[in-house]
Design brief:
Helix content is 73%, strand content 0%. Helix 1 runs antiparallel to helix 2, helix 6 packs antiparallel against helix 7 and helix 7 runs antiparallel to helix 9. The protein is mostly helical and 242 residues long.
């Protein structure tokens, strides 16, 4: 039965999260700690045991991704994705979400989108496609991919917590559901954004910017790319080991 005390405790938790999110990551941890102190000392709730297994798994996954980044393996994956996108620029609206999604699945973190996003914008602009069409879904795909990565801390932690609570959940079982569901959802989102806004050749504001030589050079200039970076064999080996 839900009591007034339980509702008040929930409001304290949500309030701490809301206030902390307004001031950034460090404040989120600090204010959440204040909320926890209120629940423990004010309401007499007993703290649970720290999820050490989950913490160790998160540390291992983050360390593995960091090593691959430092070795240059991440750059090689980005180059492969860029070659695919530049080979089929007319399909950027659908391929961009797929590339960011599978990069996250392979790497285990959604931060890979930071390097690929300027490349997606450059390809879309030079093809005359509104950049927000591929970029909007691609940014979401990079985060959705976390639920489909066997090395992502979220997936491993979910399986560990489920097994600890006597639920027979395995990583392959999770991926068999999450990967098809996410791919179908992302393609549906890409199809929905395919006709979003006016085409660039019909957009009066964009055409007005093209009349300025500086703006035109900025839009259709060299653009962002990673193809000019030489990838050593050690970086490729790091990806295979990962």
């Amino acid at each position: 039965m839900v009591t007034f005390t339980m509702i008040l405790q929930l409001c304290i938790v949500l309030g701490a999260l809301w206030v902390g999110s307004r001031y950034g990551s460090l404040a989120l941890g600090a204010i959440s700690g204040i909320g926890l102190a209120i629940l423990v000392f004010g309401f007499g709730l007993k703290p649970g045991t720290p999820p050490t297994d989950v913490i160790y798994i998160i540390i291992a996954a983050v360390t593995c991704a960091g090593i691959m980044q430092a070795s240059g393996g991440m750059d090689w994956l980005i180059q492969i994705a860029e070659r695919l996108l530049r080979k089929h620029p007319d399909r950027i609206t659908f391929l961009a979400p797929l590339t960011t999604f599978f990069l996250t699945v392979l790497v285990g973190t959604g931060h890979v989108v930071y390097t690929l996003m300027p490349i997606i914008c450059d390809i879309a602009l030079k093809k005359g496609i509104r950049p927000e069409r591929p970029c909007g879904v691609a940014s979401i795909a990079s985060q959705v991919g976390i639920t489909c990565s066997p090395i992502a801390a979220a997936v491993v932690a979910f399986v560990s917590i489920s097994n600890a609570n006597h639920f027979d959940v395995t990583i392959p079982g999770v991926l068999m559901i999450s990967i098809p569901a996410c791919v179908c959802g992302l393609m549906a989102a890409a199809a929905a954004s395919y006709h979003r806004g006016l085409d660039l050749d019909k957009d009066p504001q964009f055409q007005k910017k093209l009349q300025d030589p500086a703006q035109r050079e900025y839009i259709y200039g060299g653009g962002a790319t990673t193809l000019d970076k030489e990838i050593p064999q050690s970086a490729k080996n790091a990806v295979f080991c990962h």
